[in-house]
Amino acid sequence: MNKIKQRLSILLITILGLVHSAKGQSDLTFYHLGEITPQSSIYNPVFFPDADFYISLPVISGVSTNFNNSISYDDVFASIDGTDSVEFSSNKLLSNLKDGDRMSFDGSVTLLQVGFHIGRTSALQVFVNERVKSRLYYPKQLMEYLLNGNGEYLGQEVEENNLRGQGTYYREYGVGYTHQLMIGGSKKLRIGMKLKYLQGFVQAEVDEDASIRLMTDEDNYSVTVSSNQAVLRTAGIESMDNASYLMSNDNTGYGMDIGADFQISPKLNVALAVNDIGSITWKEEVVNYELMESEATFGGLDLSDFDDIGESLKDTLTQLFDYNEIREGSFKSKLNTRVFVSGSYQVIPKGTVTGTIMTRNDLGSQSFTYGIGYTHKVSRLLTVSTTVSRKPKQGIAVGGGFAARLGIVQLYTSVDNTIGFNDVRNMQNLNVRVGINLLFGRRSEKKIQKDDLSNEIDYQPKEKKSKKKFSPFPDEYDLDHLEEID
Q1: What mean pLDDT comes out for the span 299-310?
Q2: d(CA 199, CA 36)
Q3: Up-side HSE of residue 447: CA atoms within 13 Å toward CB?
Q4: For residues 397 and 386, is the Cβ–Cβ distance under 8 A?
Q5: How confident is the model at residue 486 (pLDDT cuts 50, 70, 90)?
Q6: What's the confidence (pLDDT) of residue 81?
Q7: pLDDT digits (tens, 9 = 90+) for 420-450
Q8: pTM of the model
């Protein structure tokens, strides 16, 4: 039983670790850079770079990390007077914590991506990506109870229902297709779709109905803890060192991205995309931990030492709760679906302003991110962009990015929160994307050449044909001086 309890503790810590290990995916900043890179199709499947053909290589072509936290370092730690040291401040943490606050981490690595045009109006892409996603909501009421102590809750029952957390690691194999239509003879509509085969490796999630109740005795301050029959579902935790499992297993699923881009006028475009529609069914290496609906009493929990909080919580949880370990059956987990709605307007010949709203499903709740960006094509070699955005439970962030093309080699990067580096202690998000691609040919230059050729044909003056005169006299006779007689 001790071994089983130890495993449960490791799993609980793993869920937290998936979040805390994040040190930095760029969302709107990279999106506003436009369809300059192959990786832009992650946000809208109709996006395709200015190339006839491209190749994105393993790892070096695309690495992204996206870490977001509702609270910052300075919201948790306070300076010790007269020293350069800091200490954990429960009062500071609780005063800054709000209902619905969360931590999240998204990461992706390009393993391979290839794309090419089919004729003038269609394009095809094939891709393989590694992806990691995790979400954790702060149980504010429970944290207040634990950090403030139970003295304020004598004879009262405290119930926490926001025990939500999820971590997923999977691989996606996919193909994408884009086609352009002409509407009304002049307006361009592009539609696209990506179909994905998903290979799951690790999953850990807390059942959405999980809850815990705490009652403090008025006489001896002891705490009675009770819980419902909550379930911690996991898969693949014990097989991360198994090479064959990481190549192929029975944890599979399907996904889809759909998107559209409509050119209303030569300067105005609107776009819509719905990404990560789908789910994974976990069948292999499944281990579920079902808490017994029970009640237990203990004397207290010392959380005064921040360094020992994790160990104290682990010991208390394993002592209080009985559970069943179930190594059979299967369960399904949905992907975190995202929706992008944007409009862009060309304000100057080489400059475009784009406004975007992004919404995503986080553990059953919808969160919204808003942003406005400016993208400028400095030259045929360099495009730069800057974005101002606002994420859930956070303030304003200013980001920037660029894409440079040197021959067939393209370099790109973007950072969502550049100002945050000036005050790292108050930074709440760090979103970075970087990579190198190989692009061959330019579709835009061929279009210009085609238009120029078309213009020459259309506007070349035509020679006026004249009637050929016939004469009975040989050519050597010069009779031009004679007047024509009707």
Answers
A1: 53
A2: 29
A3: 9
A4: no
A5: very low
A6: 78
A7: 556 666 666 678 899 999 999 988 766 555 5
A8: 0.77
**Helical H segments across 21-78, by residue range:** 28-32
d(CA 170, CA 150): 42
- Which DSSP string corresponds to 435-466? EEEEEE--HHHHHHHHHHHHHHHHHSPPPPP-
Kindly list the distances between the CA atom of residue 222 and the CA atoms of 117, 140, 150, 466, in Å, as whole numbers in the listed order: 70, 21, 9, 114
- CA distances to 1, 361, 403 from 276, rounded to whole Å, are 40, 10, 25
**Inter-residue contact 359 to 337 (CB < 8 Å):** no
Which among 126, 122, 124 has a CA at the least distance from the CA of 179?
Answer: 122
Question: What's the order of all strands across the beta sheet hosting 295-298?
Answer: 157-160, 212-216, 223-227, 295-298
Q: Is the dihedral of CA 68, 70, 76, 78 positive or negative?
A: positive
In tens, the pLDDT along 48-93 reads 999 999 999 999 999 998 877 777 777 778 878 777 777 777 777 7
Q: Alpha carbon 180 to chain centroid distance? A: 26
Q: Looking at the predicted structure, is the pLDDT value of residue 1 above 80?
A: no
- Spatial separation of the C-alpha atoms in residues 227 and 207, rounded to whole Å: 13
The token duo for 230 is 């909550």
d(CA 198, CA 336): 14
